[in-house]
Amino acid sequence: MNNLSGLDLNLLLTLDALLTEQNVTRAAARLNLSQPSVSVQLAKLRESLGDPLLLPGPRGMRPTARADALREPLRQALRALDHAIASPQPFDPAQASLTWRIAASDYSEYSVLLPALDGLRQAAPHCRLALLEIPSTRLSAAMEHDKLDLAIFTRTGAPPELRSRFLFDENYRLVCRRDHPDLQRAPDLAQFCQLEHVIVSPDGGGFVGSTDEALAKLGLRRNVVLSVPHFSFVSAVLSRTRLVAMLPERLVRDDPALRVLDAPIEIAGFEKMMLWPERVHRDPAHQWLREFIARAVPAE
C-alpha cells in the first residue's frame, strides 16, 4: 500500500484508458475529459511511476515494457475495486450460505424463533442459525466485535445504542396443571398467595419477581417454593405437581396439559423486541432475516 500513498487513484483510470486506446484523444473521449487534461494526467503518471509508459508510434502511441506489464493487473484491480464499491445485490436466500448468530432466552426461542424456524429452513436451506445466551450487559460488545448479529430481547434493559424493532406485547397469566385440585376457577387474592409458586430467575436463585413487587405494595406476600433459571423446565414442573406459576401467555397457551387463568392481581407485561448493530442495519441479508422473523411471529 506504500506504493499508492503518493498516487492519485483517479490517475489509474486514465492509465487504463490510455493503455486500452493507445491514443490520447480517444482516451479523453472514453473518460469524458478534454485532451489537454489527459495529457496532464499522463505527465503525472510518468513522474509517479518513473517510466514514459506510452511512446509516440506510427499509429498513435505504443506502450513501454513497464506499461505492458501493468495492463492486465491494473485492469483486474480496477474491476475488483468497482465490484467492491458497487451497490449490494439483492439477497437471494435460496442461494445464500451464511451463519446467523442470534441471542435469545429460552422464552424468546419458543415464542419468536420457533414459529419462524420451519419457514426459514425452507426459504434459506443453506444457511445456519447459532442460538446463544448472552446477558444484556454484553450484547453491544458482542455485536461490535462481530460475534453476534441479532438479539431477541425486552425493551426494558435493551442497550440504547442498538437498532430495534417491536415484535409484540406479552402478558403474564396464572398457570397450573389442567387437573389441579384447587384451581378449577381463578383464585381470589388470599388463595393466590397461599398457593405454592415456582418462579423463573434467569440470573439463578432468585425468589422475587414483578409479581412479588406488586403484592408487596399491597402488604402481601406469596409462597414461592421453587426457583429455576429457564422457562422450559417450568411447564414440566407444573404438569407433574401442584405448583403454579405466573408465566408469559405465549409460552403456555397451546399446552393441553396446562390451565391458564386470570390472576387476582395485575402484573405489568413486557415488549419483545429485535435488536441489532448499526454495522448490519443496511445489509440485505440481515434485512431479509429481520423481516422474515417479524412476519413469522404471531401478532397476538
Automatic annotation (TrEMBL):
Coiled coil: none annotated. SUPFAM superfamilies: Periplasmic binding protein-like II, Winged helix' DNA-binding domain. The keyword Cell cycle does not apply. Residues 7-64 form the HTH lysR-type domain. Pfam families: HTH_1, LysR_substrate. Keywords: DNA-binding, Transcription, Transcription regulation. The keyword Transcription applies. It comes from the Bacteria. Belongs to the LysR transcriptional regulatory family. This is LysR family transcriptional regulator. It comes from Atlantibacter subterraneus. The lineage of its organism: Bacteria, Pseudomonadati, Pseudomonadota, Gammaproteobacteria, Enterobacterales.
